[in-house]
User: Fold these one by one.
Assistant:
Number 1:
Amino acid sequence: VRPVDEGRAAGRVAAVFEDFKKTRGATAVPNFWRVLATNPDLLELVWSNVKRLMNPECVGRTSKLDPVTREAIALAVSATNGCAYCTNSHTAALKKLGADEETVAEILGIASLFNMTNALADGFQVVPDVKAEW
Amino acid sequence: VRPVDEGRAAGRVAAVFEDFKKTRGATAVPNFWRVLATNPDLLELVWSNVKRLMNPECVGRTSKLDPVTREAIALAVSATNGCAYCTNSHTAALKKLGADEETVAEILGIASLFNMTNALADGFQVVPDVKAEW
Amino acid sequence: VRPVDEGRAAGRVAAVFEDFKKTRGATAVPNFWRVLATNPDLLELVWSNVKRLMNPECVGRTSKLDPVTREAIALAVSATNGCAYCTNSHTAALKKLGADEETVAEILGIASLFNMTNALADGFQVVPDVKAEW
Amino acid sequence: VRPVDEGRAAGRVAAVFEDFKKTRGATAVPNFWRVLATNPDLLELVWSNVKRLMNPECVGRTSKLDPVTREAIALAVSATNGCAYCTNSHTAALKKLGADEETVAEILGIASLFNMTNALADGFQVVPDVKAEW
Amino acid sequence: VRPVDEGRAAGRVAAVFEDFKKTRGATAVPNFWRVLATNPDLLELVWSNVKRLMNPECVGRTSKLDPVTREAIALAVSATNGCAYCTNSHTAALKKLGADEETVAEILGIASLFNMTNALADGFQVVPDVKAEW
Amino acid sequence: VRPVDEGRAAGRVAAVFEDFKKTRGATAVPNFWRVLATNPDLLELVWSNVKRLMNPECVGRTSKLDPVTREAIALAVSATNGCAYCTNSHTAALKKLGADEETVAEILGIASLFNMTNALADGFQVVPDVKAEW
């Protein structure tokens, strides 16, 4: 699947590309969005999801989580799924938000810890506590 | 695998059980730790990991993330892995830290969003941007 | 693990390689099958599985699903698991069956959507409906 | 997280509940949507995604895949992720669309096969074929 | 999907059921095989795979791994995937082979450790060593 | 995240690097440990886990599993998670322990088989047997 060049984008695709660059203060559209553009419906759907949850202030919503926490969740999920493109993007996003390498490493450390405990809880078939106190 | 009763714990197992209750301000030891106790080495190993990363102040460390962020990462990983016991525990932990249901739902919303984008990035085989701007 | 060259294949390995090429109308054996050939038993086992389920007409079976649907399932699973080689293969197979880029993108869109809802259902620990109506 | 009762739903939540029932011809709202309702933004977001991709005719779109194929993808992803609620829902949806048990089993058989081949391709670290022919 | 009762099994299904009981020295057929029986082709396929890899001596093959190691791999994969039925089955199988609870816990400990390091290697996007020495 | 050069390592990082090389009889520190070194706490934590479970004799413990079985579990988990760096490392480790390519392939064959059966057990929503006999 070949990415759509920014110069060749038109209509709904061009509109999402513009909105992405304005919302993120970016000068170019990353490959992820350019491949989604092969299906304009999908591009609109995914971008509206990401904008709503990751840039809530742009759609008139307020979030109970700060931007670093939101990106930390994104990185934790991406590391858990082993998605190379995504871990790269979210590491870059965290650094842009001011997180240093030690913070990124702490996020990955916590994410990896719970991949360990998840495998243990599932492996030992632990039954729920009547009243969780953890 | 049968969980070890608190009353029958001795030696290293009893020591971890005590430390867990003191560190967490808990009155009982959850099933997760009681099944790990079937292998005292493993119990010590996992508890030292969890204590160090989730209760860093108890081992003289400082964290760059606040407790809600750390639990948010734990919940995001657990939901991604579909670990029932773990999502239950971390939801309970978040509520204990003062997070309301809307916050828990926002964490799960963001985690689920990146499960979506991870599958897309992997499915479209997106190649890394020369300079990630996402 | 080094792939087995077609020219050096003999016995059972050569037989599977021939059968693969005949069944698929291919002129070369992909790397996947060439690495499996390091263990002839495994090669036979996996090929017999794939042939039976993906080319059922070649073993006298009928399928209730058409070839595009079968490949769509293969691609959806591969994207969910983040297997790069596999998403590449199944995208190629879909195009060979006549699917255009928009169709591939729709398959990936649906697959990614259910990675989202799966994380939500697991994260919210949704209990089964007495009578599912979804 | 407690599901929102239909009788207590108001405003945007009630609107999505109504739209769900009308779109699906259902008489009750499944637990999945009732727990999402604890965060109305998330409910709207997920429902708009599902409606757009799974009931495209309701939003003036056309799909290149038939409804059984779309549900087959949903079931394959859910089985791969091990999401109990989801496999249950999509099995029910497939039966409602007329798929018999043998078809459901064929979908699961194909999905499981590619979980096998994915682990093999990743485990053997297979490098891409210059020209995929699979 | 309803499991097929042993009493109602006929033809190919009955043949696999008999072969399973003889091979395993079992007096009843577990639910896993009884649900697969809804699609006799799938039942035969999966059983022939399991028999060949887990009971190789019954098909005239030799294995380079001992039975406990083979079940340890099965349990490690099942814990990683969070498959409840499977972790239960493989724990039972290990105990039948003479493994005690401490051994089961060690297997789960090692499996969980590599779920941790996998998330770290993927999260840090570690590039391959020219010459792996780990 | 940039790996820490061995020449620039100091204090706790240098100590772990030395211990790694001594324990493993290695002449260089792999990239995995060099990226963890960006967070010395995390480096110590992960190394102490790996050493305890994979080189138990170095910490005065005994293992109920032999070294090949322990690496087989590591490889099975890594193939299941699709972690490229990790499958590469553990394949190398197995060869160093004397395992030939056929053995590696058998391990991957068994791991892949249970990725298949896991998806089937989850997909068919198999309920536990009263008395597992598998």
Number 2:
Amino acid sequence: MIDLLSRFDSIRAVDWQGDHLRLLDQRVLPFEERFVECRSPAAVASAITDLVVRGAPAIGIAAGWATLLLVREQRSCELATLEPGLAHLVAARPTAVNLAWAVDRMRRLLATPGCTEQAVFEEAQRIEQEDLQANQRMAMLGSELIAPGSGVLTHCNTGALATAGLGTALGVIRAAWAQQKLKGVFAGETRPWNQGARLTVWELFKDGIPATLIADSAASHLMSEERVQWVIVGADRICANGDTANKVGTRQLAIAARYHGVRFMVVAPSSTIDMAMPDGSGIEIELRDPGELTHSRGVRTVAEGVDAWNPVFDVTPAGLIDALVTELGVVIRPNTRRMRDLFAAS
Amino acid sequence: MIDLLSRFDSIRAVDWQGDHLRLLDQRVLPFEERFVECRSPAAVASAITDLVVRGAPAIGIAAGWATLLLVREQRSCELATLEPGLAHLVAARPTAVNLAWAVDRMRRLLATPGCTEQAVFEEAQRIEQEDLQANQRMAMLGSELIAPGSGVLTHCNTGALATAGLGTALGVIRAAWAQQKLKGVFAGETRPWNQGARLTVWELFKDGIPATLIADSAASHLMSEERVQWVIVGADRICANGDTANKVGTRQLAIAARYHGVRFMVVAPSSTIDMAMPDGSGIEIELRDPGELTHSRGVRTVAEGVDAWNPVFDVTPAGLIDALVTELGVVIRPNTRRMRDLFAAS
């Protein structure tokens, strides 16, 4: 097995410093590598809301460390005392399930008798380490599905910036690249926040993987020219039937992929799967500030008076997904039965 | 019939001033209403290449007036003398068929014995007037297809800015709005040049039509929420079988519309139809400067070294088009036979 973790280790988005959490400020990348130091749980919650840190797994990891900051701030390991702070943390972003998942994991730990600050520290560290190991495993599992000579298209940023390292969808792309399987890597801009244009192509370029940027709208033309055989994306929440909430535009890519006979892969740790949510119809889609569409770098780019609608996630029906790659294994053409089997087998 | 032309007449993108052509500079809209004065055919060709003027019909009209400038510059109405200048004009943009169509129309006129400068003037004027009348007719024909209470989504800019006035797809939207049929109008940003964000919502806002801007990628989510019943777009070139080249992203919208049961309308004058081109496989897709993706207002927004691919058109298969609206009539579910019937009947 290729040691992907040592080959691709240049970026640390979420970095515990012993007494505070250091976050790589993703709002100013790729031109500035600025860090935000969070010394309180509220500071981490704000950083999550403001997109200093983003990407479902990275948010979950940050929430783990935020719980440790909360324990220290409150000088208590009592769940009842900490609950308001934990609830505030969960509310920082509504769509990403990993945030709630990490906080719930901390809640369970805090509910155990005799829970200590040291135990909370170790749990936060474990969340981070497990993510790293899961990414290595998913990268190899996903890459196995890709035939040599393939082109791939990805959306948003699912790399080291969005995780403890390596990435989910970008982890698969890194592994396939390391195995010399890829003839082309394309990334959509990912409007309105431009995660693809600002983060993904930068991350890949740093690793010597020459990705080509396209307008999100050019994906269908790219597919019609047979330049890509796989679309590979991450996920913010996966339902019991395999319906997947991810960055807005993912649904459109999945529909276009099916039309063109291009295959569609979702790569996400099992912590992203919410078996309590039967299907995508129940997922709350986060609406963000219309200013993300009407302004650019603080300057208005759209005529005064014009309104915008800015949903930042959408739901891809399970029926459009060819493979769901998790650290527990791969689900081919996910449905409720196959999703249950994934957990039963593990 | 509603007099759409007097109701919606605030914008003149291409305006003949007796001795020069005045173009509204679409590169600096919506914040500046600046004009470019073209006193030579070469100046018009540059303005077409540089997107001072854009939109297939507007480019055709500009080419008509450029021919008059050429005749005056060369002090000749002889086709052979003018041919190098005409060829230079046609080369200004490769995909829009109206440019070649307008120049060919001028070539035919110049080939008639005794052609005069006055005749060239009248032909340029006729191209413009015919476009205006065609738009009024298409607006009414297209609006007839729309049920009251509908929402519509459009792409790129197909309004007064792209034509002699009123617009093609935007003409239909204006008519349907005037007839109080629309409960919502949505416009995609239209990356990378942002015709939707900069031009379309501005144009509609000026007319009191409150359009809502969305990211191009949000179209499928919009459709899944049943907020739109029609996607309405223009065209740069339509093949004999109905395959349609239009702004990049159109293909993706058509695929998404079909998936969601949303109907898809193309609105374009018959001058856009190229019966000599059997289907979309023969259409040359213009690739523009990757800088349109890597820079914003002259400032680099993507990491140094990163490459981009920037096709600015794509082809929508005829099979995804529910209605093609021309000034000659409407073609429901276009194919080669029905396209021939359109011309046979007229």
